[in-house]
Every structure is written in C-alpha cells, then in structure tokens.
Amino acid sequence: MKKMVLIIFLGVILLLVGSLILGVREDAQKKSDLRKIKINDVSVEVYMADDQEEQGNGLSRWEKLDKDKGMLFIYKEPREVSFWMKEMKFPIDIIWINGGKVVGIEHSVPPPASPEETLKLYPSAGHIEYVLEVNGGFCKEKNISVGSSVVPQ
C-alpha cells in the first residue's frame, strides 16, 4: 500500500515538473521572438500579440518588462478596442497607433491595487490598427506624443 501511494505521488510530481518545463520552454520561445519598430528615432523591441489568446493575456502576470521593450497588439482590421490592467504587476504606457502614427497615449496606467479592485477600461482613440504597451513613463522619457511616426524596422 505504501509503495502504491509513493508511486502515485512520484507520478503526480513528474507530471507537474513536466508541465512546468513545457510552459517555461513555451514562454522562452515566445519571449525570444522579438521584432523591432521605430517611433520617431526610438527603437523598441516588441513581443508580438497577433492572435486572440496572446491579446487576451497581453502583459498580464509578467513580473517586469525590460527597458526599451514592449508588446505590440496587431489587429487585422482597424477597430476600436479597450484595454484593462487585469493581473498587471507594473505601470505601462498604452500607445494607440493608426496609419503609421501615434493617435493616442494613456500615460503610466497603474496596475490594480488588489485583485478585488474594479478594473477601469482604457478605450482606444478611435479606430486603431495597433496598440503598443511599454513601461510606464516611456513616452515622456522618449518624447513620444500624438503624431509621432511609427515604422517597422
């Protein structure tokens, strides 16, 4: 009986460790798939959020975002969207992009104070093609404003 319990326990441990390893590999793969965009003269390495699952998760649960990096949300058709800070752990700037220009910015949006906090929605500035999330304060530090040009590199 003790051997059976031990075997079941070890089997559960192996399953958990295997799942963790696969999850870490998938995250590492996703995080290594960086592209570059330029806003005015500022180069930003971006993680791509180009499907519904990635867009739903965004930067939620990330511990931090490295300097001069961001997450670019890509929409197939220009549309109005709203973002929230669900499970975010650090403040971000939300940059709304359409027609190769910044059309709006939400500066230093704070993470929720607690999981129970009612989440505020941040609507886009009209129809947009892209949304870029970067560390809070990035736009002010780099002099990025409405009208700044955005081009892929």
Question: Can I get a quick summary?
Answer:
It contains three helices and nine strands. It is of the alpha+beta class.
Word description of this protein:
This protein folds into two domains: 32 residues; 119 residues, Protein of unknown function DUF192 (Jelly Rolls), CATH 2.60.120. It is 27% helix and 37% strand. The chain has three helices and nine strands. The protein is globular and about 65 Å long.
Largest sheet: 7 strands, mixed
Order of helices and strands: HEEHEEEEEEHE
Radius of gyration: 19 Å
Q: What low-confidence regions span 5 or more consecutive residues with pLDDT below 50?
A: 14-29
Secondary-structure arrangement, i.e. CATH architecture of the largest domain: Sandwich
What percent of residues are in strands?
35-45%
Number of strands: 9
Q: In what order do the strands lie side by side in the largest sheet?
A: 6-5-8-3-2-1-9
Query: How many structural domains?
Result: 2
Residues in helix, %: 25-40%
Determine the structural class based on helices, strands and strand pairing: alpha+beta
What is the CATH topology of the largest domain? Jelly Rolls
> Regarding CATH, which class of the largest domain?
Mainly Beta
